[in-house]
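WARN retry 2 of 3 for item q-0093 after timeout on previous attempt; input resubmitted unchanged.
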Amino acid sequence: MLMTLAGNTSTSSTADLHYQCDSAVGPDPAVTTTPSSATTSRRAADTLPESEAPTTNPYAEWTIAPDDTDASNWQRSCASAMRSASWQLPPLQTVNSGLAVECARQFALAVARNPATLEPGRNGSPGTADAATLTKSVIDAASDAAMTGQCLAAAGTGTVGSSSGAAIPRTGSAQVACGRPSSSTTTARSAVVLPSDIAAQGVCGQRVDTAAISPGDLVFWDYRSNAPTRVGIAVDATQIVTVDPDSGQVVEQVLPTRGDVRVKRVLKGDS
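OK item q-0093 returned
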C-alpha cells in the first residue's frame, strides 16, 4: 500500500503518505488528536526538497485491492484523490503578494459587500450563489488580472461569471487546472482553472500554514465522508468570504479555527 520515495525510510514514507492524504481528503478519523502546524511541517520535512520535488504525484498510481479489509474508507478516498492531487511540499510559510493576490481580495470583498453584482444564483435569486462557484469566480478574476495587468472586478464592472465583465474570455490563453503546471503550460501567466465543486477544489493547490494565510488562498473545512463541504476565499489573515449554506448569501466571516481547516494556495504571486 505504501510507496517509498528515493532516499527515504519506510517510516518517513508512511508519514509523507499520511500528510498527502490529510491535505487531499482531510483528517483521518482514526487519529483522535489534531497535529499542530509545526508537527505537520515536521512530518512532511522528510520528503524531498523543493528543488527535487516530483513533477507528478508519486502516489498517483497507488491502488487498494477491493478485498483489502484492512484499508479504511479514508485510505480508499485518498487513493482516489491522489490520481489528480498535487504532491504536497511542507506547508508554505511565506505570505503571498502581487496583483493576482490583491485582485482576489478586492473581488471577494466587492461581491460580499454588493451581492447585486452576482448573477442570479440558487433558486434564481439575485445575490445568491454556491460556494464553489464563488471561489471559482474569484480565482478566475485574479488569474486574469495576473495575465492582463488589470483587475476589472476592482472597478465594479460586470457581473461575477460574466465574460463581458469580471471574467475575461480565455480563448487562446494557457490554462492550468488546479493551478498545477503541466509540461505544456509552464508559464507564470497561465490561467488557473478550478473545478466546479468543493470536493474537487479541495485537492488543488499547495498547502499553506495558517500563519501565512494570504488573500486568495482557499480555506476548506467541515470535512464529511472524507471531503470538504465548506470553502471560502481568504481576504486577510483572519477573514474569509464564503457562502452561508442556509441562505445562499455571500458573507464575510472570521477564519474558522476548528481542527479540520485546510488552507491551499493556487495563485502564483510575487513571493
